[in-house]
């Protein structure tokens, strides 16, 4: 086992600089698509470099040279998922923003086709330390973007300045992700609204203050 | 694909009637142990009937006859996990009980060896509808037992009688399970205490009232 397949060493030349028209970018997208298809069809342990080569049209030697191996391909697919221009909702109130965030989670998973890739990544991360590291990085980026919601609430005086924004935005998704990924129970808009209301009540009670203990 | 491997049809003769000394019970434990070892070593897609036969010492034809197939074995292992005599903490207050529940989750996953089996089951459930069904049943039983904590709080006047006890006990675990199974971030006692405090604040604010909307 070498380090060549870890996310850190995966050569992500286009990271942060999207070049949708370039050959390198097209290759990267083709590999990402093949990884997603393979993960959703066969799961992480069933994913092979041969499968990715066949479904992306990219030669195996190129795959090994640019991504190091499967772990690097899975990590790069997660890196690409971070490169979108998504920003959290801005409704004008913390209550509205938290509710909109929670509803976005429910909407994302209402369509099984859209839910398949994130579900496959979570499963992969439970079986591969490299995929786990990449998924942790992915969620760090996502939740850090979400923290804008809390920063605006602090500016508006809806939350104390010493609030743990990371804990707040994780708490909004938590009951929904519990049902989607762990207990495998359905989620709906009522569950989203209740999660947002619970977090708001906890914020108002000062639970997420970094000074609380 | 037949129904013979689904949890519903798995012949779970000893369900709810523990017979630790019987030959059937010993066989069932041996198969369960082999399933756990196989899941943690190879993941769900790498688990085979051959592996279970070899590691349990139970003949393949017996495995197929009694469990129908791998899905039935995984489901039965989850059924057995429900058959312990665990009850939720009873500290005398809702605050204390919620905190004790959350800390139990953190303690359970502090030891990688104890964490391996639940993690493997969650991964299996993300890849097999049958495992998902069995895991959903497992968590339904677990969380239903936890609801005693809320019932006692209602009796003590700490919560309104129309509280959604199932949502409350899920909410306590949710931020911890999010970190353990989805974002793959560490958990600690402070995270447990904060989760309990957040749920308590939401209960006091009436968020979990079934009449709230």
UniProtKB/TrEMBL annotation, chains A, B:
<dbReference type="InterPro" id="IPR001647">
    <property type="entry name" value="HTH_TetR"/>
</dbReference>
<keyword id="KW-0805">Transcription regulation</keyword>
<dbReference type="Pfam" id="PF00440">
    <property type="entry name" value="TetR_N"/>
</dbReference>
<dbReference type="GO" id="GO:0000976">
    <property type="term" value="F:transcription cis-regulatory region binding"/>
</dbReference>
<keyword id="KW-0804">Transcription</keyword>
<dbReference type="InterPro" id="IPR036271">
    <property type="entry name" value="Tet_transcr_reg_TetR-rel_C_sf"/>
</dbReference>
<keyword id="KW-0238">DNA-binding</keyword>
<dbReference type="GO" id="GO:0003700">
    <property type="term" value="F:DNA-binding transcription factor activity"/>
</dbReference>
<dbReference type="InterPro" id="IPR050109">
    <property type="entry name" value="HTH-type_TetR-like_transc_reg"/>
</dbReference>
<protein>
    <submittedName>
        <fullName>AcrR family transcriptional regulator</fullName>
    </submittedName>
</protein>
<dbReference type="InterPro" id="IPR009057">
    <property type="entry name" value="Homeodomain-like_sf"/>
</dbReference>
<dbReference type="InterPro" id="IPR011075">
    <property type="entry name" value="TetR_C"/>
</dbReference>
<feature type="DNA-binding region" description="H-T-H motif">
    <location>
        <begin position="48"/>
        <end position="67"/>
    </location>
</feature>
<feature type="region of interest" description="Disordered">
    <location>
        <begin position="1"/>
        <end position="25"/>
    </location>
</feature>
<dbReference type="Pfam" id="PF16859">
    <property type="entry name" value="TetR_C_11"/>
</dbReference>
<feature type="domain" description="HTH tetR-type">
    <location>
        <begin position="25"/>
        <end position="85"/>
    </location>
</feature>
């Amino acid at each position: 086992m070498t380090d060549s397949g870890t996310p850190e060493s995966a050569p992500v030349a286009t990271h942060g600089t999207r070049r949708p028209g370039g050959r390198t970018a097209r290759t990267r997208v083709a590999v990402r698509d093949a990884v997603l298809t393979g993960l959703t069809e066969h799961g992480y342990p069933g994913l092979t470099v041969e499968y990715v080569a066949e479904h992306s049209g990219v030669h195996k030697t190129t795959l090994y040279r640019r991504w190091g191996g499967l772990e690097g391909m899975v990590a790069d697919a997660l890196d690409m998922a971070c490169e979108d221009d998504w920003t959290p909702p801005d409704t004008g109130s913390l209550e509205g923003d938290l509710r909109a965030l929670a509803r976005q989670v429910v909407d994302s998973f209402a369509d099984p086709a859209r839910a398949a890739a994130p579900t496959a990544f979570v499963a992969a991360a439970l079986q591969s330390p490299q995929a786990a590291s990449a998924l942790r990085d992915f969620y760090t980026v996502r939740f850090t973007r979400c923290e804008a919601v809390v920063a605006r609430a602090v500016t508006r005086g809806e939350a104390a300045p010493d609030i743990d924004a990371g804990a707040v935005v994780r708490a909004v998704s938590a009951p929904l992700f519990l049902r989607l990924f762990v207990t495998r129970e359905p989620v709906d808009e009522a569950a989203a609204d209740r999660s947002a209301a619970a977090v708001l009540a906890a914020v108002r009670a000062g639970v997420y203050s970094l000074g609380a203990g």
